[in-house]
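anyone seen this seq b4? input:
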Amino acid sequence: MPGNDSNTKLLAHCNGTDASTTFVDSSSSAWSMTANGTAQIDTAQSEFGGASGLFDGSTSYVVVGSSGADFKFLHGALDTSAFKFTIDFWVKRPDPTSASAMTIFATCPESAANVGVLIRFGSSRRIIAAIYRGNGANNVIEHLSPNNIYPNDSNWHHIAWTYDQSLGSSNSTFFVDGVNSSTGTKSGQTPSTNNATSTATFGDSPDGTSFYNGWVDELRISNKIRWTSNFTPPTVEYSNDPTSSSSNLRMSMLGIDLAWLHMYPFPDGAISAIDRQQIAYKYRGIVAQNVGGAGTPYRTLLGVGG
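predicted toks r here
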């Protein structure tokens, strides 16, 4: 499905060979991702792509980017009155009842003296997220979910955090497996325009105090709200959004078998004729597009939402 678009500012598929320490940002930002400790790719567990990121809970984390300026849009530095974002990912936790703080992504340590954002798991299966403004007292928001909103099992689950500063209330929302599970309201304090305190980290807080234990797949950060109500979690990993051109044919499809679209290579010389056709297809509003040229199978699918 699409989802790696111009609003995507980080996308870690966590794909690769087993035990590899190479993490790749597939967004147009192409941030460097540097594995530390035992952070690695694991092919034994995955939601998509045959692999995921494995973190051991004691030494593993990935540094994303190179400075506190990289993700400053997340704490409102670029638009203090109307900034918005979505952070979503898949996780598989071997012990969801653990009382340890476990950070998924952060641009500062967990303290009101810092500037930045974080999202982590806490005790009693809670999700905790915060936007800090660095004055040592009042945060932009500190959103603590009720107890037990994270499922008590070791299956894969989709987590999404959306934040919209422009709203009067319910600015922050946690979705668990597509269900709105908790909302929080901003404090009314003005966000900082400074850079984040730290370079971003994935799998731990920048100060090394809340290592994540488990697997993560398909971490995405967007500078838009992806969902405002309950939704069906993604069923495939996010892909690039195709664009229209004479060699990249967009089709609205109707009544054409999906498997045929995946397998059938249009013959050389046929593109110019097909390019004038709009073919509707009844698969949840999905449209497909040729991403190569003549003779290339129609493999890339463009979906709705997310």
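The longest strand covers residues 213-222. Residues 242-306 form one domain. kinda curious what u guys think
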